[in-house]
Design brief:
This is Ornithine cyclodeaminase family protein. It comes from Roseomonas elaeocarpi. Helices cover 35% and strands 26% of the residues. The protein is α/β, with parallel strands linked by helices. α1 crosses α11 and α2 packs across α3.
Length: 326
């Protein structure tokens, strides 16, 4: 049995190959029930959760020999960890043989999640964003925000990247990290208290990628100019949201998976409840895009939105790839 820590997982999942692995699993499919969520005793006075995300595939997602893999990601969400100087989300992925059930590897779940989340967003952007997109606005300053900046860099000709956070110091720290990693685009940090980033920042972006824990809209439809692609990553519970209903109403809306989005994606769930959109206005999921069943963007002036909540099949494909590249 192998153990792969955060650096080992990162080294085994280069962006272009990981994006292609996710394309393959959305094209071919795998069994991945909706995540199991269990309430834990409060952590730091806030709700805590245990999440279980199983998936299995009859054949190897990486095309190798054997009967494929099964796996499960175990995630603890413990908000009280912040006071202890420990990340609030702790996770591990258990990869097993699909033939015997033998445990093959335990992988760092945080790095696996960060990278497959960013890769899924950029996979979707390949269908939804303008290929000449050069200005990226990142909302948020955590590890997923960093992964998004790095992954978008691998697929688009970025010239300007702005990072916005309610805490200016956090935005500046992420920009410093990106510079240290050799990010070639012009980088700028933006920090401001209040409801969200300035409208001028939203209007200047070709791609807006939001990875926050916001429960109030940060991206408003009226502020987004034609041709923009908006990538909504952060609102993974129904009570959370990063956009208003007006944005989803004017956009071509795609999601990672319909069952997950309609059950858990706060942006979508709340927009439907408000009457801004209906379920029928979710134009496509990543299965339809990757299988050529929906063309994605067809007009350079379209506003497009991708909303993800995560799918266990992504974790399985990424874990199998990392195991194969160990």
């Amino acid at each position: 049995m192998h153990h792969m820590d955060r650096p080992a997982v990162a080294a085994a999942l280069p962006w272009p190959a990981l994006i292609e692995a996710l394309h393959d699993v959305f094209r071919t499919g795998c069994e991945a029930p909706l995540r199991h969520r269990h309430a834990l005793p409060p952590s730091g006075g806030q709700p805590a959760s245990l999440l279980l995300m199983p998936a299995w595939q009859a054949e190897s997602p990486t095309g190798g020999k054997g009967g494929g893999y099964t796996g499960v990601k175990v995630v603890h969400v413990m908000p009280g960890n912040a006071a202890l100087g420990v990340p609030a989300v702790q996770s591990a992925f258990l990869l097993s043989s699909g033939t015997t059930g033998e445990l093959l590897a335990v992988l760092d779940g945080g790095e696996l999640t960060d990278r497959r989340t960013a890769a899924a967003s950029v996979l979707a952007a390949g269908f939804l964003a303008r290929p000449d997109s050069r200005r990226l606005l990142i909302l948020g300053s955590g590890r997923v925000a960093q992964a998004l900046a790095e992954c978008y860099r691998s697929a688009f000709p970025l010239e300007d990247v702005a990072v916005w956070s309610r805490r200016a110091a956090s935005a500046e720290a992420l920009v410093a990290t990106l510079r240290a990693h050799g990010h070639p685009a012009r980088l700028a940090a933006r920090g401001a208290e209040g409801e969200g980033p300035p409208e001028a920042e939203l209007a200047a972006a070709d791609i807006i990628a939001a990875a926050t824990l916001s429960d109030r809209p940060l991206v408003r439809g009226a502020a987004v100019r034609p041709g923009t692609h908006v990538d909504l990553v952060g609102a993974f519970r129904p009570e959370m949201r990063e956009s208003d209903g007006a944005l989803l109403r004017r956009a071509l809306l795609a999601v990672d998976t319909r069952p997950g989005a309609l059950a858990e994606a706060g942006d979508v769930v709340q927009a439907i409840a408000e009457g801004a959109i209906t379920e029928a206005e979710v134009a496509a999921d990543l299965f339809a895009l990757c299988r050529g069943e929906h063309p994605g963007r067809t007009d350079p002036a379209e506003v497009t939105v991708f909303k993800s909540v995560g799918w266990a099949g992504e974790d399985l494909a990424a874990a199998a790839m990392a195991f194969g590249n160990r």
